[in-house]
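Minutes, project check-in

Agenda point 3 was the complex the collaborators sent over. CS summarized: three entities, 942 residues total, and the question is how they sit relative to each other. Sequences were read into the notes so everyone works from the same version.
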Amino acid sequence: MRANKAFLIIAHRLAILAYIAFALFPLFWLLKVAVTPNDLLYSEGIRLWPSRASLEHFDFVLRHSAFPVFFRNSLIVSGSTAVIVTILASLSGYALSRFRFRGKYWLVTLMLLTQMFPLVMLVAPIFKILSPLGLTNSLTGLVVVYTAFNVPFATFLMQSFFDGIPKDLEEAAMIDGATQFVAFRQIILPLTLPGIAATLGFVFTAAWSELLFSLMLISGNAQATFPVGLLSFVSKFSVDFGQMMAAGVLALIPACLFFLLIQRYLVQGLTAGAVKG
Amino acid sequence: MAYAARHEGLPAIRPPLMKRIADASAPYLYTAPALILIVTVMLVPLVLGISYAFRDIQLLNPFSGGFVGLDHFRALAQDQAFFRSLRNTLWWTGASVFLQFAFGLILALLLDKPFHGRAVAQALVFLPWAVPSFLAGLNWAWLFNPVVGPLPHWLFAMGIMSQPTNILSDPQLAMWGPIVANIWWGIPFFAITLLAALQAIPRDLYEAASIDGAGPLQRFLSITLPFLAPTIAITILLRTVWISNFADLIIVMTNGGPADRTQIVASYIFTQAFKRLDFGYASAIALVLLALLLAYSLLIVILRQWLLSKD
Amino acid sequence: MASIDIANIKKSYGTHPVLHDVDLKISDGEFVVLVGPSGCGKSTLLRMIAGLESVTGGEIRIAGRRVNDLAPKDRDIAMVFQSYALYPHMSVAKNMSYSLRLRKTAKDRIATVVAGAAAKLGLDPLLERRPRALSGGQRQRVAMGRAIVRQPKAFLFDEPLSNLDARLREQMRAEIKKLHKDLGATSIYVTHDQIEAMTLADRIVAMNGGVVQQVGSPLDLYDRPANLFVAGFIGSPGMNFFEGNYQAGEVQRFEMEDGNSIPLDAPPLSNNARVTLGIRPEHVVLAGHGPETLLATVDLVEPTGFGIILHLSLGGASFKAFTNDRSFLTASGTIPVRFPAHYLHFFDAEGRRV
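CS then shared the predicted structure for the full assembly.
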């Protein structure tokens, strides 16, 4: 009986370890190739760690390539999208959480439907609409598009955070002498701060990862976001593996940082999005 | 007694008009910015896209734009590449969803029991979810590349492959590349959702079942599964729609190749719009995809009604 | 401090009415308890007075001023919530002073008032703590402290004790009563607990189904319930009811359905009228001989420590009796019971007291 139990525990730990290895191995390999000097890359192809590690690829990518520009563009786009979406979603999420109003059902249905239908359908028409406005090949255009795509999901997320704050608190504040807006600012908002941070994180991560629309809407290097830049680099210089992977590691950094930020809220985020990745 | 009912039928006293207007419009003011954005950036293009399906819209041809009726759909009916992409979509979606779910469920069950270091283990196994999809695609493409990746060599050493070649360029095997990447990337989604559902199951149910004499397998079958069933159903249904539209990994890893062997409908639409700049034809395919997804959703709704009525 | 006049107040959600023409005059310094089962409209009425619910019809005046359209903040009232509604991100002191800070009261004045309230409620050592770090009873005190620093025109309490365990509830009940004695503030207190209502109120307003059933002093409601609802709601264990007929004659009698009858000196009723007879368990006399004595079967004996509740039946009707006599702990079989005439209540077919 006891041996059986010990066996179960060992099997459980081994299974967990296998999952961790599977989850981390690709990222580990990315890092490994990124620090392998070119002369060792082919001779030590499948060694788990090169006999000599160097940061030369990072150095090259940061100083002699366009990646810092891509990185900056992506930061601008994802950062602005996250901020704007969070503001809009706070407002609409608050309304969904606190008010009963005519048309609410239709609004929620519309927002749910936008999460369901294939966004790839919109690639062509959005290009056609943005082009005469001068919003193709522009970071502003991307921000507008990403903001619209992320608002529904962020609204549901913010609504779930507002729902977690008892209505009594606002009412107590209003009896204590606050107007509705003051109650919102001094009582509700401070209590929603973790929710706001989580929403920022989710939207940032989503915008940072978006590929199809940035491929379609951006052409020049100057406005390219990280995915566009990396993909065009891959198709042009497909032998500089070390540099590509060094760039890949750089793209991973903000994603990992935000992952740490929103880890606690993953469940809430995934259920609010329901169908979002 | 002071409570006697008096003043029968006094007209209700209404608050002043301005206050009423302000109160009534507040929810609309809060939601207006989001709504306007959704309508202009999502609904208007959707309608426009539907109209493109019946027009000749080619970006590089200034004389295009005319109404062509059902021409695109006639061309589509003859388009072997489209039908192949339909079959590929089924294969891609079915394999991805099933394997993501199976591995996700096992992971959720493993993480459900408390153990030393669970929080860290959880953070590590969920990390792939945060990796941008384009990077996940590139990363796996590199792992499958015999020049820098270990996988072909390992498969060769184990005798599974006769040569350490890149499966992404093998027409028979290429689809497995994006599917494996998708499984790696999507396990956390299922695991997180199912873990949350698992932890919502009241613990005393298990205790009651043990006292009633149920073994571990019986407890799983009679308590865990029935409690998880609604979550499993809804997650799989929604995920199916989402993954069938998810073209990022394919575009990054194989671009539909070799010889269209990995082209799914969503990536085919993107290729038509992005590479050939044929917006009309791309929109026609998109419309068919939308119709198929609607039919699928409708089927689900009907199935659900049927199951409910059976009980 | 102020009087509160509620005239002909109506409330409905859409077409669904929840309050029907409530009239109530509360005088300066009075402690009024709104009591009733859940869903009776008592909380809605309180929230309308606070300004948290709109008024569908009628008029609310605080200190003579019509407040129907005033925002809660302009009504100068304080409220204690069932959930306490303490601001989780503020310390106890900040919670208590929030209203004063919103009114831009001078800093030193705030400090004095908060210190005074804290001393009164025994909160001095907790002033810098967050609500999260307090026990249920302490949170309850902070909620009270937040109300009293304001010196508002009136205090509103919305089931303030229902989240506490029985012992704390008893203790806080006494403290609320003491506080009211000290401050003499007009108070409206909502509860579903009839003991709270009896012990705290100057006047009880019993409500059911959105209609006021009776207004009066606690003993009024106990001794002379206006209808079956009030009779059954006030008192624990609840009043016993028997269905039957009134028989006029040389000796007036109440005839139960199983044929038992009780002689009465009752109010004049028309002969053979259908009435409900009510008697409180503590008024049932468990002894006697003579014509008015009945033989009841003992079904169950429930010792409460303080006394004994006997579950009895008389023909088909079951009822309860309460006694302090411990010899009844072993009661079984049948025992003689008597319903003294001056403790009997009568209600007509519509449930009104006669």
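Noted in discussion: The first strand of chain C starts at residue 4 and ends at 13.
Follow-up: revisit at the next meeting once the mutant set is ready.
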